[in-house]
Specification:
There is one protein chain. By secondary structure, the protein is mostly helical. It contains 17 helices and no strands. The protein starts with 9 loop residues before the first helix and ends in a 5-residue tail after the last helix. The N terminus is likely disordered.
Length: about 500
């Protein structure tokens, strides 16, 4: 096959090469095609090429019908089946272990005294941690190891719950022993006998927490471990009175919430499934404290208020981790509205007895509107709905109070609420809120003016003098600044439709 150098320069070709009259020009073209594309004279026609391409598309591993499917496809399907079965088996095993913890928590095993049975559960926690290490370092199977370490964290929480019951059976701070149900009773001889128990619990809790959080969220492992220890130590404090439980609950919720708001964005490991589980374990002791007080003890208004506020805060933190337009976030927002109503009602029950005047309804409206407007500000789906609900409740509560009982303090709250609604309506450019606010403020002022007029004695010269002077002053202000006032009001009330 000839060299292609002759194509570089026609003149050079004419000078250096002797034309061969027996060679056709088309032969050169055929040679060029063969040189570049590596095909011989028996090239594939277009129809044959299309058929071959279609055959290859349907069978990427070959062009013939006699090519067999690779055995690797069947192997992969088998692996997938085993992986699915393994996941089901893993989840089932985890649920069974959790069930055993719950059974143990409610005194399901009766051999030995309470301290001896507590050591048995402590041994289970240690065994779960060892199982996690064995799967991770011996079998090199990380999914099962994560399950064992997660169960270890849950087992630690159960341990500390029982330890708290044992401590409370010997020592109470500002509380009296309650009559527990038999399945929830844990007793120790005295506090001195629990020294070794407490030391053993801490000795197991710290390593399990450290290694577990290093697996679930390595970048925040130290902070998570510290918060986990604090949350579980709160379970040991021997108090059951609602005011102390409320303070403990606030501490148990506030610290993790501050941590989450500070680190959830910059630490991506916290936004994984393992990270969410690690965060959840921080709040489980808080839920146990609240559930213990609600179930075993009589919950009062103060504790109900605290728990409602904590629930609202936890839902708000949860919503920050969800998509703004998601259905799940919308559900959480509506649940938050219900909690806002609970907060408002309990706040009114606590505040109303402290003042001489009856202002329960205005307090309900103000507190509910405050929390609901807060939700509306952070919501993209229900912003208008929440704003309207808050405005209607605020206006209705104040006007019912002002027309039913009246009073100077009720008037102040009614007028202030109306002015606040007017301001919010102007900021949101919402005519309905603006109208509600105006009606509320005018109702409060009008009711007070009517009460004031009833006290005026028109037969007294002093009263007549005050009225006359007031009329003159108002006329002077309107004449001097009336046009400016009108223009400012017109500009202020111009709201985009």
């Amino acid at each position: 096959m000839r060299s292609l150098d002759y194509l570089k320069n026609d003149n050079e070709f004419e000078d250096t090469q002797t034309p061969n009259p027996r060679i056709n020009e088309n032969d050169y073209i055929d040679d060029i095609d063969n040189e570049n594309y590596g095909v011989d004279e028996n090239y594939v026609e277009d129809e044959d090429y299309d058929e071959a391409f279609n055959t290859y598309s349907n069978n990427p591993l070959g062009t013939g019908n006699n090519i067999k499917e690779p055995e690797s496809k069947g192997i992969m399907e088998t692996i997938k089946k085993f992986a699915t079965f393994s996941s089901i088996l893993r989840i089932s095993g985890a649920l069974i272990v959790i069930a055993s913890m719950i059974t143990f928590l409610f005194k399901g095993w009766t051999d030995g005294d309470d301290v001896e049975r507590y050591y048995m559960l402590l041994t289970q926690t240690f065994s779960l941690a060892l199982g996690g290490f064995a799967l991770s370092y011996i079998l090199k199977e990380n999914k099962g190891a994560r399950v064992f370490f997660g169960l270890g964290l849950l087992s630690v929480i159960v341990n500390m719950t029982i330890l708290g019951a044992l401590i409370f059976s010997t020592t109470q701070w500002g509380s009296n022993l309650a009559t527990y149900a038999s399945f929830a009773t844990w007793k120790a001889v005295d506090f001195g006998s629990l020294g070794l128990v407490i030391a053993a619990s801490l000795a197991i809790m710290l390593p399990v927490a450290i290694f577990s959080f290093m697996i679930f969220a390595r970048n925040s492992a130290k902070s998570l471990t510290l918060l986990f220890v604090i949350s579980n130590v709160l379970l040991l404090i021997p108090v059951r009175e609602s005011i102390y439980v409320g303070i403990i609950a606030v501490i148990g919720a506030l610290l993790p919430i501050i941590f989450i708001r500070k680190n959830i964005i910059k630490d991506t490991s916290l936004r994984t499934a393992e990270g969410y589980f690690a965060i959840t374990t921080l709040f489980l002791p808080l839920l146990i404290i609240a559930g213990r007080s609600v179930w075993i003890y009589q919950i009062d208004t103060f504790l109900q208020l605290i728990l409602s506020v904590i629930g609202f805060a936890l839902l708000h933190v949860t919503m920050t981790a969800t998509e703004e337009q998601s259905f799940g976030r919308s559900i959480l927002e509506w649940i938050s509205v219900i909690l806002s109503a609970s907060i408002a009602i309990t706040s009114a029950e606590l505040i109303n007895p402290l003042v001489a005047a009856h202002i329960g309804l205005p307090i309900v409206g103000i507190v509910f509107a405050g929390f609901t407007f807060f939700l509306a500000k952070s919501s993209s789906i229900n912003k208008i709905n929440f704003s309207m609900i808050a405005g209607i409740v605020l206006a209705t509560c104040n006007m019912i109070q002002i027309f039913s009982t009246g009073g100077f303090l009720s008037t102040i709250l009614c007028v202030s609420s109306g002015i606040a609604l007017v301001y919010i309506g102007l900021k949101m450019r919402n005519k309905i809120l603006l109208t509600l606010g105006s009606i509320t403020a005018i109702s409060g002022l009008g009711h007070q003016i009517i009460d004031f007029v009833r006290l005026i004695d028109l037969s007294d010269w002093t009263t007549l003098a005050i009225i006359g002077v007031s009329a003159i002053v108002i006329a002077s202000v309107l004449e001097r600044h009336g046009a400016v006032i009108k223009l400012k009001l017109t500009k202020l009330l111009q709201i985009k439709k």
